[in-house]
Design brief:
- The complex is a heterotrimer of chains A (417), B (294) and C (333).
- Chain A has 13 helices and 15 strands.
- Chain A has a 7-stranded mixed sheet with strand order 7-6-8-9-10-14-15, sandwiched between helices. In chain A, strands 2-1-3-4-5 form a 5-stranded parallel sheet, with helices on both faces.
- The N terminus of chain A is likely disordered.
- Chain B is an all-alpha fold.
- Chain B has one domain.
- Chain B has a two-stranded antiparallel ribbon with strand order 1-2.
- In chain B, helix 1 runs antiparallel to helix 8 and helix 2 packs across helix 8.
- The mean pLDDT of chain B is 85.
- Chain C contains 16 helices and 4 strands.
- Chain C has a domain of 231 residues.
- Chain C is 74% helix and 4% strand.
- In chain C, strands 1-4 form a two-stranded antiparallel sheet. Chain C has a two-stranded antiparallel ribbon with strand order 2-3.
- By secondary structure, chain C is mostly helical.
- The radius of gyration of chain C is 19 Å and the shape is globular.
- The chains are: A alpha/beta (417), B mainly alpha (294), C mainly alpha (333).
- Chains A and B meet through strand 7, helix 7, helix 8 and helix 10 of A and helix 1, helix 8, helix 9, helix 10 and helix 11 of B.
Chain lengths: 417, 294, 333
């Protein structure tokens, strides 16, 4: 080899060197994370979120807020000087891609923890990979299934709300106020079904009359064929249990069909990004739940501190609901690391189970049996007037205080006492 | 199944027709292009989406919906001309697969370019003020804008029909769809005809996207769903048959609305089941010519 | 493309000029070379899970290529074959607790049976209609699995395909270990390479091509064209079913997206990129496609722009695909 270089002269040697160094740079970039770990033993948190696809905006907000939690941890001295690092991966909203990315994070990058996801299917895929490999996963999107014994493991934590809590809070607020005759328009998949189950569960206490549950396929772009049917049922309340674009279109078309004139529309979950995308007209007067709204800063010092830090880091922008979850999901794990004084999985699990925290939305803790974060659920109403800033789109009109009574019981979920 | 009445079924039928009108507009372009160029345009959904975004852009510049109705088809048609001239034309004579695959790749590119220009999140698109609200159509209240969509589709169809039946250029197109070789032998510049047909087809797709925007809002992925459904429409109607596309578009709209009345969760599979049945019984569709594809 | 196919199935005349010899060598030892490449592959990939995905998608594309490249029928419904294999393998493990090898066999059978069902309905249609019918039928399969929530998990996907250990005649292999998992998958893929190689070299392989090249002549020569098509389609289903089963084991989940028509579209892209109707093309296409997607999506979230543009360039300027173009170059030298 050395001989051939001299034989070819200086130019090709230079070229060879360039090639070699380019190759080395490539190799270094591939193995960068491993090297860093060897030198400083950084605490690594894998963060798979759907940067591409329809929820890219929410995902970006999740990343921003998670970076804030990392920065705060590092500024606070880390774990005895050990810094934390966020390894963001694009799961493309596809469970298969999420499984691949999680395998990469666990097997190649050797992350200590995984936090992330923005859909039920994706979080269940990530969870299946992490629990088999004994890695802690803190999920920051909604699902009922992840609490259930079949999917749960001691490595599984759920910082986000679940559909049961969300629907329960909205139902408890709306059913006594707007009437007993309730119709449902539901996206035909687990998330939609779980929401309806939650509504019906709480509805029993208020004696509501179920006029019918009309299901539409996921990704429906036209509700004109369903809405006349619903109107003919003459409901007091219409629960629209779908998400994202489905929700935006359903609300827009329900407005066009004049459903709102006679019926109060409620939705279990109103997301900030959906409201912004669909505009004030479609969401006008709609009541729903959410896990976080920046306006909570009038009530909690922790929210104020979180908002201010976020504003400072991102040019005055305010965090969204999903952003807050990214922050909460990472911050709880890092707080547990600090309390445990180690990144050892079992000790961090014990610390997470013992954690009583108020990081961004008032008091929270993880329930023992299913690691569901017991927390408040906000009931909000979309507003179209007197907007103070571009993020001022909702008004908080009620809240479920944190209580295990609002969760499905451990036995119901299949956990042995 | 209570609450089922004659009025409800009639109203549902009407909703199906309005839905069908969008399918028809989308599918005639697809069918026109296929019938003439034998190009299966996988980017048709992307043109539809671009139509909606051009509308958004015109509104941002201060234009109104009526300006959009004229400007959007022109702008999208122009993009169509460029695409045909520089991307699809080199592929003629290489078989049907290549233009199909090229437009498949093109749709990725167009969607991503729109994401870069307008962002990944959807953009609200309000129904024009004058068309808001619902009117009594005898069997119940029906949104005015949807009636407008039915009307607009009818106008476009009429114009297209007049163009194809009453102009000499239309005559060439019809002849070309039947036998391009003879037309070429007769000394017609077929390449130019194909260029214009592709332009017209994409222009109508853009218009369909604009008309759909106030119904659904605007999002980069909006062309994906309708593309799969429109394939069903064109295949059921007979690939390349405009009359077939109209009939099948309305039929699919009505089938969807009726399934959503009786079994809402089957709304989507019903379309594909319909297609599978039609193809097995009559492989060339309602008005398709057997043997065209062999 | 046609010429390359001929190279694959007819006994090679060893060419005189030396530049072609690498190609002749590659052709005669195609299965062994592919096997070696597959073994060394994880060492050069960014991470092992991606290498395993590439193998699986390569196998899926190999099965697809049998229908598209060798038979000349463009199918837009191959996701149904791939997905059925994955689901049957997963269901066997999750709901029946069957051992992993039985699950894989069931996955292959699932692919075969689904291909027989779709093939029986679609095989008489031609050209673009074949693409459309297969797409429509595979959409029906999608909704079938989607609605069978009890078995498939519906939209949430099927979870819990957890195989921790593979027992090989008393030898216990740790299936959680990424490299071991890769090599187990690789063993199946290499076996599939050999099987396909034998099929293509057999008299039946020649009939397949005769049907593609000239249907009328094949019929006149006494071959049953429809039966040949159907059998090839079913064989393709077997390969895709195996790929699906391996995917289920690799991910330990089956997402419903596996049946989406995007999954059918991707395999067309992969086959075209690599070179349809060539033996190595699908595997090379899968490697380039997935690697490209992986690398590009690391530095820009607009990876679809780059991937779409590269695909268009391929269609316009390299219709024979990467491997197909290489073969052509080799011959023209």
């Amino acid at each position: 080899m050395a001989r051939s270089i001299t034989a070819f002269g200086s130019i090709s040697r230079r070229r060879l060197l360039t090639t070699v160094s380019a190759g080395a740079a490539l190799a270094a970039s591939t193995f960068r994370i491993n090297l860093v770990q060897a030198e400083e033993a950084t605490i690594k948190i894998g963060f798979p979120v759907p940067l591409t696809g329809p929820y890219g905006t929410e995902a970006q907000d999740q990343v921003r807020a998670a970076q804030l939690a990392i920065a705060e941890f590092n500024d606070g001295g880390g774990l005895n000087g050990r810094k934390a690092e966020l390894l963001v991966r694009d799961d493309k909203l596809n469970p298969g891609e999420a499984a691949t990315r999680t395998l990469e994070l666990v097997e190649k990058d050797k992350v200590n923890f995984v936090v992330g996801s923005l859909s039920a299917a994706v979080q269940l895929a990530i969870n299946n990979v992490t629990k088999e490999r004994g890695v802690i996963f803190n999920s920051i999107s909604q699902s009922d299934a992840i609490n259930e014994a079949a999917d749960f493991s001691k490595y599984t934590f759920h910082e986000a709300l679940n559909p049961h809590m969300t629907a329960g809070a909205v139902g408890r607020y709306a059913f006594p106020k707007f009437g007993k005759k309730v119709a449902f328009l539901t996206a035909d998949y687990a998330y939609g079904h779980e929401m309806v189950r939650g509504f019906l569960d709480v509805g029993k206490t208020f004696g509501i009359e179920n006029l019918g549950d009309i299901r539409h396929p996921l990704g429906t772009t036209d509700y004109s064929t369903l809405l006349p049917r619903i109107q003919s049922l003459k409901p007091d309340i219409l629960c629209i249990s779908n998400f994202g674009r489905d929700q935006q279109i359903a609300l827009k078309q329900a407005t066009d069909f004049g459903v709102k004139k006679t019926t109060q529309i409620i939705a279990p979950l109103l997301s900030h990004a959906s409201r912004v995308a669909a505009g004030p007209q479609a969401f006008e007067g709609v009541i729903g739940g959410c896990s976080f709204y920046w306006g909570l800063e009038e009530k909690f010092a922790s929210t104020k501190a979180f908002n201010d830090a976020f504003r400072k880091m991102y040019d005055g922008k305010l965090p969204s609901d999903y952003g807050a979850l990214g922050y909460g999901g990472v911050r709880t794990v890092l707080a547990a690391v600090k309390n445990a004084g180690s990144t050892d999985t079992d000790r961090v699990i014990a610390a997470l189970e013992a954690l009583k925290y108020d990081f961004y939305k008032g008091p929270q803790y993880y329930r023992q049996c299913d690691h569901q974060s017991v927390q408040s659920v906000l009931v909000i109403k979309s507003k179209s007037k007197d907007l103070r800033n571009e993020s001022d789109v909702f008004e908080i009109i009620g809240a479920d205080e944190p209580s295990e009574a609002n969760l499905r019981s451990c036995e119901e979920l299949g956990h042995k006492a | 199944m209570d609450g089922l009445s004659f009025d409800l079924i009639a109203l549902q039928l009407f909703a199906g027709l309005a839905l069908g009108a969008i399918y028809v507009l989308f599918a005639i372009g697809l069918s026109l292009i296929f019938g003439m160029l034998t190009v299966v345009n996988f980017a048709h959904g992307a043109f539809y989406m671009v139509g909606a975004y051009v509308g958004v852009y015109i509104l941002m510049l201060g234009g109104n919906f009526w300006i959009c109705l004229i400007a959007v088809p022109l702008a999208v048609g122009l993009i169509g001309l460029v695409v045909e001239r520089f991307l699809i034309r080199p592929l003629y004579g290489r078989g049907m697969d290549y233009p199909l695959l090229l437009t498949f790749g093109l749709s990725y590119v167009m969607v991503e370019l729109v994401r870069i220009a307008f962002g990944k999140t959807g953009i609200p698109f309000d129904t024009p003020d004058i068309l808001q609200g619902a009117v009594d159509i005898g069997v119940g209240y029906f949104p005015l804008y949807r009636l407008f969509v039915i009307g607009a589709a009818a106008v476009v169809l009429l114009a297209l029909w007049l163009f194809l039946e009453r102009t000499s250029f239309g005559l060439i197109i019809r002849a070309g769809a039947r036998d391009p070789q003879i037309v070429r032998v007769l000394g017609v510049n077929v390449a130019q005809v194909w260029l214009i047909v592709f332009g017209i087809g994409t222009a109508i797709a853009g218009l369909a996207g604009l008309l759909a925007a106030p119904l659904q809002g605007v999002i980069p992925e909006m062309g994906g769903t309708i593309l799969a459904e429109a394939f069903v429409v064109t295949v059921v109607g007979g690939m390349g048959s405009i009359g077939g596309a109209v009939l099948a578009g309305l039929l699919v709209g009505v089938v969807v609305s009726m399934t959503s009345l009786f079994a809402p969760e089957m709304g989507k599979v019903s379309i594909f089941a319909l297609m599978a049945i039609v193809l097995i019984v009559r492989p060339q569709g309602f008005f398709g010519r057997a043997g065209l594809m062999s | 493309m046609q010429s390359s196919v001929n190279e694959m199935t007819q006994p090679l005349q060893r060419p005189q000029a030396t530049p072609v010899s690498w190609f002749a060598f590659a052709t005669t030892h195609r299965a062994s070379i592919a096997g070696l490449a597959v073994l060394a592959f994880p060492l050069v990939m960014p991470f092992t899970a991606l290498a395993a995905n590439i193998l699986i998608y390569g196998l899926y594309a190999l099965g697809f290529n049998l229908v598209y490249g060798y038979l000349g029928l463009l199918s837009f419904g191959h996701a149904a074959l791939f997905g059925t294999g994955a689901y049957l393998c997963g269901i066997a493990i999750v709901h029946f607790g069957l051992p992993w090898y039985v699950a894989i066999v069931l996955g292959i059978c699932g692919g075969l049976v689904m291909a027989a069902a779709i093939g029986a309905l679609a095989i008489r249609t031609r050209g673009i209609y074949f693409a459309m019918v297969t797409m429509a039928l595979s959409q029906c399969v999608y909704y079938l699995f989607y609605e069978a929530v009890g078995w498939t998990g519906g939209e949430n996907g099927l979870r819990g395909i957890n195989v921790r250990e593979i027992d090989l005649f008393g030898l216990k292999l740790d299936f959680i270990n990424p490299l071991i998992r890769y090599y187990v998958i690789a063993a199946f893929v290499i076996a599939a390479f050999f099987v396909l190689s034998r099929i293509l070299a057999s008299p039946f392989g020649a009939v397949i091509e005769a049907v593609r090249e000239n249907e009328a002549r094949a019929r006149a020569s006494g071959y049953d064209v429809t039966a040949t098509r159907l059998i090839t389609f079913i064989l393709s289903g077997g390969f895709c079913g195996l790929a699906g089963a391996l995917q289920a084991l690799h991910w330990s989940i089956v997402p419903i997206e596996i049946l989406h028509y995007d999954t059918s579209g991707i395999v067309v892209m992969i086959a075209l990129l690599g070179g349809m109707g060539t033996f190595f093309g699908p595997m090379i296409g899968a490697a380039v496609f997935l690697l490209l997607e992986n690398i590009v999506s690391l530095w820009t979230e607009h990876w679809q722009l780059v991937v779409g543009a590269i695909f268009m360039i391929c269609v316009l300027f390299f219709p024979a695909g990467i491997w197909g173009t290489l073969i052509r170059r080799a011959k023209h030298d």
